[in-house]
Amino acid sequence: MNTTDRPKVGVGVIIVKDDKVLLGKRKNSHGSGAWCFPGGHLEFGETWEECARRETAEEVGLELVNVSFARVTNDIFPEEQKHYITIYMRADYGSGEVTLMEPEKCERWEWFSWDALPAPLFIPMQNLMALGYRP
Questions:
Q1: How far apart are CA 27 and CA 87, in angstroms?
Q2: Is this prediction's pTM over 0.90?
Q3: What's the average model confidence in pLDDT over 45-74?
Q4: Domain that holds residue 89
C-alpha cells in the first residue's frame, strides 16, 4: 500500500420500514457476496443527507424521510488494500418500490429484521454491529 493513500468516504443508508432494514448482496466489488445497506461514495460538495438520498434513489429507487446521522465506522479491507470511513445515515422509508437499479453491483435487495440479519455481513456492517448500534 502506498503510504500517501488516504481513506475514502462512504455513506451507508440504514432504511427502516415496518421494523426491518433493507440490505443488498454485493457483487463485482470489494466485499462481493456480503450483505450491506444501500450507499456509496460521498461526492465533492455533497452533504451526508444528500448522498444518502442520491445513493438510495440510484441503487433501489426509493425516496427517504427523516434522514439523520447514525454512526461512523473506520473500515479497513486488508486483502483489497482499501480503507474507508463509513458515515451511517438512518432514514425511514418514504415511498417507491424496491428495484434492483444496478444489477452489475448488487445481486438482490431484501428486508430483514435487525435480530435476523443475513451472513456474511460487509466489513463496515460488522464494525457497526460491534459498536452495539440498533436503528
A1: 21
A2: yes
A3: 98
A4: 8-130
